[in-house]
Amino acid sequence: MAGPHLNLAFVMDPVESIDIDADTTFVLMLEAQARGHRVLFVDPADLTVCDGRVEARVRSLTLRREAGRHADLGPPRRVVLDDDVDVVFQRKDPPVDAEYVVATQILTLCRRARVLNRPEGILAANEKLYTLHFADLMAETLVTRSIPQLVDFMAKLGGEMIIKPLEGRGGEGIFHLRHGDRNLFSILEQSTRFESRRIMAQRYLPDIRRRGDKRILLLEGEPIGALTRIPGEAEVRANLHVGGRPERAAVDDADRGIIERLGPLLRRDGLFFVGIDVIGGYLTEVNVTSPTGVQEINALDGTCLEAVILDRVENLLAAADSQDSR
């Protein structure tokens, strides 16, 4: 049973390389540490299965907000997640490649340890394709690897579209294509890897220049914060790490309509903490692997969203313990 002090394992990218001023996982771990919980680092490559039980090579973490000195790692030791860990945060960044999928599949074998987000939900929720459960909330969208089909689709849209890889992250591989661009076929060849890989194409939404790309963070399908990312003059992408400018944002009625539609499916699939992207009232993406934006929203709104998230985690475990004790 989970006691007042929990063992929290974070399956993530190398902790030494994170940006402590922007990384959401860092502030989640820092908040957990401040509450007296034990924070454990897990490299996804160090997840194994022995006789059907998930084991991990873990290292304890001591964290501080000091650039370059933000993390002290303890000696490695091997644990059984269901015996020694209360919560596993699956916070590995994309790409969702074969190794990511295997690590997530291994986490589906956890029985007592609670995995957030639920690994079965992550595996079912490609961040681009998951949105197509709500195609009526999106701009016109095509998923294909056929270059002729992509060219025809762009013509139907008036000669302009956005393309993006299905497994990308942080704006990687996104192109704004226009009819008459002499690089058009070369870009489509590279993006589809010569028609061997599907990509997503969507109608270009010019509202991104005026109103930006809104990131809304959802906890169990309910909004906890939002910000708008405004692209730079020379960029089509609004992602913060490529120069997008964060601005305060409110969740408006159009956003609430989208959230009300998504919420039941997110809760059904165990997608505890996600970030959705909205441009001009259209849903463009549902981020389920390692959603970001907590630190930026905190700075803009004077909030502490990591505390909200940890409160909910503690309440979930307390409720489960109460149920088990009956």
SS content category? alpha+beta
Distance between the termini: 13 Å
Task: Provide the gyration radius in Å.
Answer: 21 Å
| Net shape | globular
The beta-strand count equals 16
Number of domains: 3
| Fraction of residues in β-strands | 25-35%
The top-level CATH class of the largest domain is Alpha Beta
Strand-and-helix sequence, N→C? Answer: EHEEEEHEHEHEHEEHEHEEEHEEHH
Write the CATH architecture name of the largest domain. Answer: 3-Layer(aba) Sandwich
State the helicity in percent bands. Answer: 25-40%
Mean of all residue-level pLDDT scores = 93
Q: Might you state the CATH topology name of the largest domain?
A: Rossmann fold
- Helical element count? 10
What do these coordinates show?
The protein is an alpha+beta fold. The protein has three domains: 7-117, 3-Layer(aba) Sandwich (Rossmann fold), CATH 3.40.50.20; 140-203, Dna Ligase, domain 1; 207-306, D-amino Acid Aminotransferase, Chain A, domain 1, CATH 3.30.470. It has ten helices and 16 strands. The protein has helices at 24-34, 81-84, 98-107, 119-124, 147-156, 184-191, 207-210, 253-268, 294-301, 305-324, and strands at residues 7-11, 38-50, 53-63, 71-73, 77-80, 87-90, 114-116, 141-144, 160-165, 175-178, 199-203, 213-219, 222-230, 245-248, 273-279, 282-287. Strands 1, 2, 3, 4, 5, 6 and 7 form a seven-stranded mixed beta sheet that branches. Strands 14-13-12-15-16 form a five-stranded antiparallel beta sheet. Helix 1 packs across helix 10. It is globular and about 60 Å long. The protein starts with 6 loop residues before the first strand and ends with a helix. The model has no long low-confidence stretch (mean pLDDT 93).
